[in-house]
UniProtKB/TrEMBL annotation:
Entry's EC annotation: 3.4.24.-
Enzyme class per UniProt: hydrolase
Matches recorded under NCBIfam families: FtsH_fam
Listed transmembrane segments: 20-38, 124-141
Protein name: ATP-dependent zinc metalloprotease FtsH
Cofactor binding mode and count: Binds 1 zinc ion per subunit.
Cofactor(s) annotated in UniProt: Zn(2+)
UniProt subcellular location: Cell membrane; Membrane
Topology term for the membrane: Multi-pass membrane protein
Keywords: ATP-binding, Cell membrane, Hydrolase, Membrane, Metal-binding, Metalloprotease, Nucleotide-binding, Protease, Transmembrane, Transmembrane helix, Zinc
UniProt xrefs under CDD domains: RecA-like_FtsH
Similarity field: In the C-terminal section; belongs to the peptidase M41 family.
Subunit structure of this chain's protein: Homohexamer.
Amino acid sequence: MNKKENNNGDNNGFFNKNPILIFAIFSIVIVLLFRSFGSSDGIGQNLTNNGATKTIAYSDFKEMIKQKRITQVYISDATIKASGSDGNLYVTKRVSDPTLVPTLESNNIVYSAYSDTNFLSDLLFSWVLPVFIFFGIWMFLASRMQRSMGSGILGIGSAKKLINSEKPKVTFNDVAGVEEAKEEVVEIVDYLKNPDKYLRLGAKIPKGILLVGPPGTGKTLLARAVAGEADVPFFSMSASSFIEMFVGVGASRVRDLFESAKKESPAIVFIDEIDAIGKSRNSGPMGGNDEREQTLNQLLSEMDGFDADKSPVIVIAATNRPEILDAALLRPGRFDRQVLVDKPDFKGRIEILKVHMKDVKISDNVDLEEIGRLTTGLAGADLQNIINEAALLAGRNSKKVVEQADLIEAVERSIAGLEKKSRRVNKKEKRIVTYHESGHALLAEVTKGAKKVSKVSVVPRGLAALGYTLNTPEENKFMMQKHELLAEVDVLLAGRAAEEVFIKEISTGASNDLERATDIIKAMVSMYGMSDVAGLMVLEKQRNNFLGGQTIKDYSDNMAQKVDEFVKNMLSERYNAVLDTLKTYSGAIEDMVVALYEEETIEGARVREIIRAYEERSGLESRLSDESDDEKKGVKEA
């Protein structure tokens, strides 16, 4: 009995899993039945005996009637079937012949009309079959949705297929450059491993940790490392996956996510880009039934609803837009702690490079400190891409190991773009570019507070750059003084000024330089309070600290006019100062142009050597005295 029940259960499972196959078999059976009924037109038994069925021409049929060889005739709209005296069935195509009936009557042949089709077959092909086809398509789509989305009404609302559950093998050894952030989450790992140590003291571990920082700094990697170090399940889901066009779906998926985590507790729930659902409810008009608001409310309830002592589930979320998150999400008891995962400093960049070099064959002569200085301001993802790009370059050149030149080329590709070897620049344009870049390089070296030159090149790169000057700061800077901002403006204006002094005509090559110089002067007035125009009043507010978003302007038209006048006058003042400097160092510019025109690329040490030689030759007081010790050491070694 039990065996039969099991068999029945298996059959039901087969039918439930294969509805399309059952529908196809059922349709074939129905068509065959209708076909069998359709073939019985009521004349088969009267006309067919043991003879054969033969198709003949209509003229032959008329001749057989005259010869008394036909005994019975059935006429339809398209065909004529006749029973022959020899026992055979003769079929011919009906033609328009008004003499047919009189001929049959004169020969005393019985005839009658019949229909080629029947009601059942008409019903099948006109109504039943289309309905079954539509029903089959609907079942197919429903089964597809159920497989992809899980249970529920057609599977809508379930998050089980969207949740990534795993036990990561990543540890803190795989995370570098964010030592302060790692220190903030170490106690989370310790709590997940030894919760009694904290519960005994009455301490409560934070329920939620919010990782904030620029893109590519390793927020997701850090969250995975926490789960890997604690050896607990890691449930991850993107916040955008909660949002659907159906109201209530997001809330349902939040419940599924936390239910799955509670079953496997202790566990970590990771929500990436939480700003997709956690946006402040005061940021704009949102209705009471708004799907995003319902999803956020459900998330808030879930974070309040579980007992961290009984089912330790730590929620880690990541975002690069913390300023737009709802205040209820950031209060203590939900996301108790915000951890900044910022771009790495010099030491951090070297550590990140070492992590990504583990599986890459690197030459013993590679100088990681030089690569670390060249990559100022880059995030961990950028550094990983540089290592991979260098490995690809080495492989393309059939090298056995990645060399220093490959890494430097990868850095330049990341910063300035791909080298355009096929782009041919005529002699006139090349001369303009060499003076332009020489101007940038000279001002960067002789201006106090400017970033020193690492390389100058007149080889086209990227989409539109015909040359570039690579500047590297002496150290990591987290703030800039007024004279440093003005130094950066001077360096930007030096390219156009060099064209005016030495070419006697300006070109379009300085458009981006002028744009950046204008932005710096405007920021000094409107955001940093470095002028008498607005004093200490802030005129613009930056909307996003990590994405470099747009600024919010809040000042009158009269103030805008004053700002414009100040920016214009300041740019003119700095431009005149740059012109004077270039005229003073005209010989150094000419020497640099000759070297650039011949070699196309010169290093920063060569630039400083040319300037120093000109100062000694001309009796000028050296303005290279603010070099760092590392640079001086590099010049001596060269």
